[in-house]
Amino acid sequence: MTEPTHTTEISVRLPHSLRHLAGGRAAVRVSGATVGAAIEELINWYPALRSRLKDAGGGLRSWMLFFLNDEDIRAREGEQTPVADGDVLAIVPVAEGG
Known about the structure:
Elements: E1 9-13, H1 16-19, E2 27-31, H2 35-45, H3 50-53, E3 64-68, E4 71-72, E5 88-93
Parallel strand pairs: 1-5
Antiparallel strand pairs: 1-2, 3-4, 3-5
């Protein structure tokens, strides 16, 4: 008999500027063991987000910040940062001004 597998589920908060690409949702629940896996699942559900979140090489866009439970993932392990049930990943566009 096979053990049931546990899927980690987190909430991804989308900035107002991206909500129209996710059916108007402010937050989406996704699963994955890492930030990168969670973002990939988000993109699988809402493919229009790919070009806004990932560059041509598949890396995260530099003008989007990703905060896992209020901590910038760049200060941790980037896309390889592990996630736990109930975590919140906030996507924040970098403000540019002049």
